[in-house]
Amino acid sequence: MRKIRVGITGYGTIGRRVADAVARQPDMELVGIAKVRPDYKARLIAERGYPLYGADEESLAALRAAGLPARGVVADLVAGCDVVVDTLPPKQASRLLPIYQASEARVIFQGGEPAGIAEVSFNAQSNYEAAVGRRTVRVVSCNTTGLCRALGTIDRAFGVEKARVVLARKATDPDDPDTGPVDAVVLDPAPAQLPSHHGRSVATVLPHLKVISMAAKVPTTHAHFHSLLITVKDRNVTAGAVVRAFEEATRVVLLDSREGFRSTAQVFDYARELGRSRSDLYELAVWRDSVTVVDDEVYFFMAVHQEAIVIPENVDAIRAVTGTMDRDESIRLTNRTLGILK
Length: 342
What we know:
alpha/beta; 8-stranded parallel beta sheet; 8-stranded mixed beta sheet; 12 helices; 25% strand
């Protein structure tokens, strides 16, 4: 069977990880990556043996002038692909829409784009089937992916009546020195408009859930930190039953503060010691000993590695839009090739 031909536009936090993930899939071929500037990231593309393309003719000329073996421009790349994964910075995908629309390629956008850019927003565990055969799909953001995994698990096991989420968001990614804050907690959004957009974003995947969220940015780079308060329909819910539901869920790892996981720093160190490329933690990290039940309310803390959690979702989205595998088969293969714990 012919492999799925995949192209990537952009090579930042998400693009470089999607490229490596696609390269590991036995049913996919990485056709190339489009880059604007001849910076060190463009050179890494060439050094890793990935085909390099320019964003346009000017970009192509700059790449070649820098001695980089660029093969063509974005339109050339897209023309040779079954699926294009757009990983441009937030709100930038519209620049390439005419090229995408003129091609036969299916396109996967990221959560930094508005929901209306695609036919469906996507989380593999929650609504894989809704993306099957679609022309355009939007993989939701890191925070929304984490919330869909957690709330979807609780909803399937106990029924969610309503959920309240408080997010302490990372200030920036480790490779971005130009974004803050450095010594502050910043309302997000500012001015303080509540609820935040995160609950509405969950509704693009799980529309039947009532999720109210609020957020602030904190001076850290390694993860987002969520506090969840969930009212469930099952009045007999117990903390042990919640833990068991998470144990059975895929792409969720349970950590215990009594084992030294007292902060997101230890979570990041754990991912590093797993030997993962770039210390990536694809799993949602839930603190086992934080799971508490009071009457019909479930409480727990969790951490979201913003750089990595959406990568397996992008891989599954590629299979969904091409209709080559069902959900469980795709998730199992993605998990195996990326070394995901379960």
